[in-house]
Amino acid sequence: xxxxxxxxxxxxxxxxxxxxxxxxxxxxxxxxxxxxxxxxxxxxxxxxxxxxxxxxxxxxxxxxxxxxxxxxxxxxxxxxxxxxxxxxxxxxxxxxxxxxxxxxxxxxxxxxxxxxxxxxxxxxxxxxxxxxxxxxxxxxxxxxxxxxxxxxxxxxxxxxxxxxxxxxxxxxxxxxxxxxxxxxxxxxxxxxxxxxxxxxxxxxxxxxxxxxxxxxxxxxxxxxxxxxxxxxxxxxxxxxxxxxxxxxxxxxxxxxxxxxxxxxxxxxxxxxxxxxxxxxxxx
Amino acid sequence: xxxxxxxxxxxxxxxxxxxxxxxxxxxxxxxxxxxxxxxxx
Amino acid sequence: xxxxxxxxxxxxxxxxxxxxxxxxxxxxxxxxxxxxxxxxxxxxxxxxxxxxxxxxxxxxxxxxxxxxxxxxxxxxxxxxxxxxxxxxxxxxxxxxxxxxxxxxxxxxxxxxxxxxxxxxxxxxxxxxxxxxxxxxxxxxxxxxxxxxxxxxxxxxxxxxxxxxxxxxxxxxxxxxxxxxxxxxxxxxxxxxxxxxxxxxxxxxxxxxxxxxxxxxxxxxxxxxxxxxxxxxxxxxxxxxxxxxxxxxxxxxxxxxxxxxxxxxxxxxxxxxxxxxxxxxxxxxxxxxxxxxxxxxxxxxxxxxxxxxxxxxxxxxxxxxxxxxxxxxxxxxxxxxxxxxxxxxxxxxxxxxxxxxxxxxxxxxxxxxxxxxxxxxxxxxxxxxxxxxxxxxxxxxxxxxxxxxxxxxxxxxxxxxxxxxxxxxxxxxxxxxxxxxxxxxxxxxxxxxxxxxxxx
Lengths: 283, 41, 455
Description:
Chain A has twelve helices and four strands; from the N terminus they run H-H-E-E-H-H-H-H-H-H-H-H-E-E-H-H. Chain A has 283 residues and is mostly helical. In chain A, the strands form two sheets. A two-stranded antiparallel sheet of chain A has the order 1-2. In chain A, strands 3-4 form a two-stranded antiparallel ribbon.
């Protein structure tokens, strides 16, 4: 190959690549609206995007896996956490995570209520973008599909009790934060059998989306229990799991649920309320 | 031209930055030692 | 230094070195935050230190490119620069832009758009600086009438950098579309036109340092540029994984970014071949270390480590983990940091007084400590990243819990980053300890042995 041929190779190769790239770019533009549900980009979502930018979120978190790697990916966060939880979380993250146990904490951002609502709307829009099904398995913030795998914080801080990875809560905390604590510390612990990750059924069915499912179920002909609303359904499932059985041979037999009973005695009325409030956030 | 005037200041500035780098190493080292016991698998 | 106006390069290098040092301060601060409760949570949170760390990198590397170009173009075109005054105006504007942007980030004044955080006024100043720069360089070449291939590649690279910055000035309503165009700037810079700039500097250095034949070097330069663009332009698709664009970008990204190492292999062969056939023993062996080191470290960091996670079925699991940090650190350091340091090391003996042409032992310590440190940092990010992928993505452990399990690797990161920082500190000290040659008393008592017979 001589100099001239080498130059021709460089120019032709580059030119061809540029042409293909521009062609595909044009074609992609005709697909963006459909793939991203552009009709759902309301002024609220746009404002939420501005909030996302204004508070420099992407330099700790990732969105679509893009950003910094210091905080959890938020692509599907609104499918893992209900709006009420996220709203309370963003008012003050330290009410949900303990810097000494998790060894990392999101600084309080002092967002206005409107900023929080719109940011959640934006994140909800993001979670519905067609991105080839990524992530292939849900990326959780805490906890895990494997029972006991979230005990690191407790071990690291020398307490050694498996269920104590969650930050300690006081009566002053948000009921939902206290409920999450109950979720991990009740005996037997709820998270030993239930995950909060979509599709991740363990010994018990996943609790992701339980509020949505309960809302559809209560009042329908399929429902066998006595509850009349979502909170009632969740409460009933905790204290009387056999009233209504979730379909599946791995969950029940002979009309009796495999779920342990006795939570009505071991949990205080307030703990039960908090637990219900927490689970009702999984929309 | 202005070479003489600026060499002094930028040399001093570079030393300030070098001090900053030393301080950053010291800080990161201290944090490592301080948190060493809390790091477990 | 054959042409007086080349001395502007000294001030560009001086600014670049200062900002390089500052970049590492913020890097170390960011790394320390991985170890436990952050004492600086409400003073300098991670997002601030991280944004300053990456932005300083971009600013100082570009400052280094500009300085190196002002050094190289008079040599290649055998003429003085068109205007040193413009070059100084550009440097002052550019530095002001960089410094005010960093100060702004301390107060969260930025766009919050990854890697394009510069506020609009700063972006406009960036464009103005690039235009001044291109004008000055073009006029210099035009005046001389001597236009080498190396220069042509360099100039085209710089010009395209300016053009590709334009999509970054626009505002996009759809977040996915703004991601799409972010990578027109960032990806096509670092894996396209900056590679061109790097290849041009490397050709220049190899011709000068090893006396390699210009005809052969320039032929290779074309081949490399061709390979870089064939793989790099369509390789942009590897940034289009999982962000809400059509699915055909997945196989395109996988195929073309798998080709990207080809150009880097070619570059390494050409660097190695050049020294094997070297007909000329240039005394500046230290600059040769940096040049060859740059070619090899690029092959490792950009080529091998990029290839490791670029295939869609692999990237599906590694996307958005510390694996990306592993690749990013090694690739940027090898390709862009080392080539700028090579140009500085090559030019420094002529720009400063009484500096030994062959480099000081301090200079060699700087070289080896940086290589060792960066290699260790890369391995630390790799082990942490692999752990993260298995625990978090494959086993389904929560993010925060998985981070605690991989925390131990950050001790190694800080240890190796400290070695790296000391290496950089030595380089900076070595750069500043000799005064620049003042034009009035510039007596080239050290006659630079040059490859001009070949040039």
